[in-house]
Amino acid sequence: MVHEMERQVEKEKPVSVKPTEQRAVALSIVIPVFNEEDNLRPLHEKLVEVCLRVGVSFEVIYVDDGSKDGSLTVLEALATNDAHVKVIQLRRNFGQTAAIAAGVDASQGEVVILMDADMQNDPEDIPRLLAKIQEGYDVVSGWRRNRKDRFLTRRLPSNMANKLISVVSGVRLHDYGCTLKAYRREVIQGIRFYGEMHRLIPAYAAWMGASITEIEVTHHPRLHGRSKYGLSRTIKVMLDLITVKFLSSFATKPIYVFGMAGLLMLAAGALVGAIVLAQKFFADVFVHRNPLLLLAVFLFILGVQLIMMGLLAEINIRTYYESQNKPIYSVRRVISQKEP
């Protein structure tokens, strides 16, 4: 099938995404799969057609995330008939983020594109993503402006989440939830995935200094299978946003957040204590009968505990970085007249 397509497809002007000497391919397409048996063959045919037309060396990595239908059988057939295909079978359903992480770890391309297996993302948008990467961007995010999903259960909570993430992260994107995105390898390979964090990769990359842009992409209605997304995922994304924000802003200096909160508690305790004394001397309110005394003691204790937590976190962070020689910075490139 692939060889016939290679002979039939006329190549357009190729996008200049060249692999380095150490890498076998220029483009890796990572697709997590969970119960998408009916969508896989038409998706793969379209992917191969587009990639051959673009004219770059490529690989397609399907990650079977514990599918219960015949998805794995279809993927095995695709891998048998097409040398571009690599299939990773996970032992059970670990979730979309874990599946993406497995695919990224197994990829070899200088550019990594993520997309869904449900045929709602259009492979025809891949050349446009690569063109933006060629312009110098590190991350190109898809924007499903005309999204073909239900409003109340999918689009409304997604829009609310997108606005909140944009405000917290400072990275203004219309559609964090769109899986169709392109990344330079040096940007995505340094990110560890947890929870639903794959949606927050652009924000995390921006905090590392990556350049990000957004383009409108086509979104098709689902024709086969059932959606795996629900309202609960929005809540998970919000919790992950708090985690990512903390890690990006205070990972190297946790004493700042814990210490600041502790000092505020101590100040509040001092203020309440002053009120208790004022009531004692000027209003004849006995201290042992004043409930504000308990509040002052509680705030003092809480303030001390928060500061101690910050100091313990500082010790853990220093041990984490120094014992593993982990860098606290990220270098984009080194400019020198000397050869590397």
What's the structural blueprint in terms of helices and strands?
Layout: H1 2-8, E1 27-33, H2 37-54, E2 58-64, H3 71-81, E3 85-89, H4 96-106, E4 111-114, H5 126-134, E5 139-143, H6 151-169, E6 181-184, H7 185-188, H8 201-207, E7 212-216, H9 231-250, H10 254-282, H11 291-323
Parallel strand pairs: 1-2, 1-4, 2-3, 5-7
Antiparallel strand pairs: 4-6, 5-6
Structure characteristics:
Spore Coat Polysaccharide Biosynthesis Protein SpsA, Chain A, 7-stranded mixed β-sheet, 11% strand, 11 helices, 2 domains, 49% helix, alpha/beta, 340 residues
Question: Care to describe what's here?
Answer:
By secondary structure, this protein is of the alpha/beta class. It has 2 domains: 2-249, Spore Coat Polysaccharide Biosynthesis Protein SpsA, Chain A (Alpha-Beta Complex); 254-323. The model is unreliable at 1-14 (pLDDT under 50). A 7-stranded mixed β-sheet has the order 3-2-1-4-6-5-7, sandwiched between helices. Strand 2 (58-64), helix 3 and strand 3 (85-89) form a beta-alpha-beta unit. The chain has helices at 2-8, 37-54, 71-81, 96-106, 126-134, 151-169, 185-188, 201-207, 231-250, 254-282, 291-323, and strands spanning 27-33, 58-64, 85-89, 111-114, 139-143, 181-184, 212-216.
Oligomeric state of this protein: single chain
> Overall mean pLDDT score?
82
Under CATH, the homologous superfamily of the largest domain reads Spore Coat Polysaccharide Biosynthesis Protein SpsA, Chain A
Weakly predicted, low-confidence segments: 1-14
Q: Output the structural class.
A: alpha/beta
**Biggest sheet, spatial arrangement of strands:** 3-2-1-4-6-5-7
CATH class categorisation of the largest domain? Alpha Beta
According to CATH, the fold-level topology of the largest domain is Spore Coat Polysaccharide Biosynthesis Protein SpsA, Chain A
Q: Element order, helices and strands?
A: HEHEHEHEHEHEHHEHHH
Tell me the count of domains.
Answer: 2
Helical fraction equals: 40-55%
- What about the largest sheet? 7 strands, mixed
CATH architecture field of the largest domain: Alpha-Beta Complex
Number of contiguous helices: 11
Rg over CA atoms, rounded to whole Å, is 26 Å
Report the portion of residues in β strands.
5-15%
**DSSP summary, beta strand count:** 7
Give the overall form. elongated
Distance between the termini: 44 Å
